[in-house]
Amino acid sequence: MRHRVAHRKLGRKTEHRLALLRNLCTSLITHERLITTLPKAKELRPFAERAITLGKRALAAEAPETALHNRRIASAYFHTGNANRVPDGGYKRPHAPRTAGVAALEKLFGELAERFSERPGGYTRILKLGTRKGDGAEMALIELVGSEKKVTHQEEKKEEKKKGRRFFGRGKKSSEADAKEGKSPKSAASAGSSSKASKKNDPGGAEARPRSRRKKTDATE
C-alpha cells in the first residue's frame, strides 16, 4: 500500500519530473492553454497555481524587496528554454537566446497577476478530451480561467478574414478595379459575357481568321 504518497511519479525520477513540470508550466503561462495527458494535467495544476500565487503576492507587496523575493522564487517554476528556437546548423553556429522562461515570468507578474488579483484560487480548469488513439491514454485540456475570451476573439478575426476571400482568389482584383471605377461586379460580368457573344456572331471575325490550307496531293496515273 502506498501510504503518505503526495503526488504522482509519472514514471520519472525527481529531476526528470521537475523538468517536465517546469516545461509544461512555461507553456501554460505563455499560451494559456495546453493539451496533455490527464495525470500530467492534474500534477501541473497545483504546480502552476503556486506560481500564480507568487505573482499575486508580488503585486500586493508594499516593499520592492518583497516583490523581488517572490519573483526570484517563481523563476524556479519555469524552464529557460527558447520561445523561438532557430534550428542549429552546427557547433559553430550561435544558439538562440533563452527567452521562454523570461517571457512567461514577465507575463505572470504583469497580466496574469492583475487578472487574478481578486480571485482567491482556482486559476486553472481541466477538461477531459477522451482517450488518445494509439495507446489509449486519457487526454485533457488544461487552461487558465479567462483564456476562452481570447480564443473567441481570435476565431472572430479568422472568420472575418475568410469572408473577404474568394474561391482561389478569383475575381478579387477585377472587383477592386471595378469598385474604383464605379462599376458593380454584376455589370462587369454582363459586359464580359456580351463581348464574348459579339465575337462569336461577328462575320468579320471569321474572315479575319486564317483559312486552313489543305495539302495538294499529286494524282498518280
Which tags fit this structure?
221 residues, mainly alpha, 50s Ribosomal Protein L17, Chain: A, 3-stranded antiparallel sheet, 8 helices, 9% strand
What's this model, at a glance?
It is built from eight helices and three strands. It has helices spanning 14-31, 38-60, 64-74, 100-115, 147-164, 172-181, 185-201, 203-208; strands spanning 33-37, 124-131, 138-144. It has a three-stranded antiparallel β-sheet.
Tally of contiguous helical segments: 8
**Order of SSEs, N→C?**
HEHHHEEHHHH
Record field, number of beta strands: 3
Helix percent reads 40-55%
The average pLDDT score comes to: 78
User: Strand order across the biggest sheet?
Assistant: 1-3-2
Rg from Cα: 33 Å
**Quaternary arrangement of the chains shown?**
single chain
> Which CATH architecture of the largest domain is right?
Alpha-Beta Complex
Proportion of strand residues: 5-15%
Fourth-level CATH superfamily of the largest domain: Ribosomal protein L17
Overall tally of structural domains? 2
What fold name stands as the CATH topology of the largest domain?
A: 50s Ribosomal Protein L17, Chain: A
In terms of structural class, how would the helical and strand content be classed? mainly alpha
Reading off the top of the CATH hierarchy, the class of the largest domain is best stated as: Alpha Beta
Q: In one word, what is the shape?
A: globular
- Unreliable stretches: none
Biggest sheet character: 3 strands, antiparallel
End-to-end distance, in Å?
A: 113 Å
